[in-house]
Amino acid sequence: MAIWRRNAKLDGLVHHSDRDSQYTSIRYSERLDDAGIAPSVGSVGDSYDNAMAETTIGLYKTELIYRKGPWRTPEQVELATLEWIDWWNNSRLHEAIDYVPPAEKEAMYYSENMSEKSKNLSEKTLETVGSKSL
Known about the structure:
The protein is mostly helical. It has helices at residues 2-6, 21-24, 26-34, 51-68, 74-90, 102-113, 116-133; strands at 14-17, 38-41. Strands 1-2 form a two-stranded parallel sheet. α6 packs antiparallel against α7. The longest helix is centred in the middle third of the chain and has 18 residues, at 51-68. The protein is globular and about 45 Å long.
């Protein structure tokens, strides 16, 4: 989804993951390469390997799964999860980035730091973020 949203190659981006089979498969590695993303796999037994992902999953469970349940169908969970992810990426105010939603901060970064092509992309992202606010 991140690649689709940006509609651009992501040269220089590093995707860090653990050693689970889906992250070490040939097809997955090829997809990263096609997008210009460098794979990075943590060392075995590294306790910090998935700390950020596990923290996010913990917040997801606490804020959505436990608070809004019980769930009657998997479809209810899927729809609620999509809504939560949209909120997490596009509306959540994040203290570490001056209480700005992550998508807006990313658009600001591209606007201030990238080439004309990237500026056009960030304006498109800002328009998307702005239209969701209405």
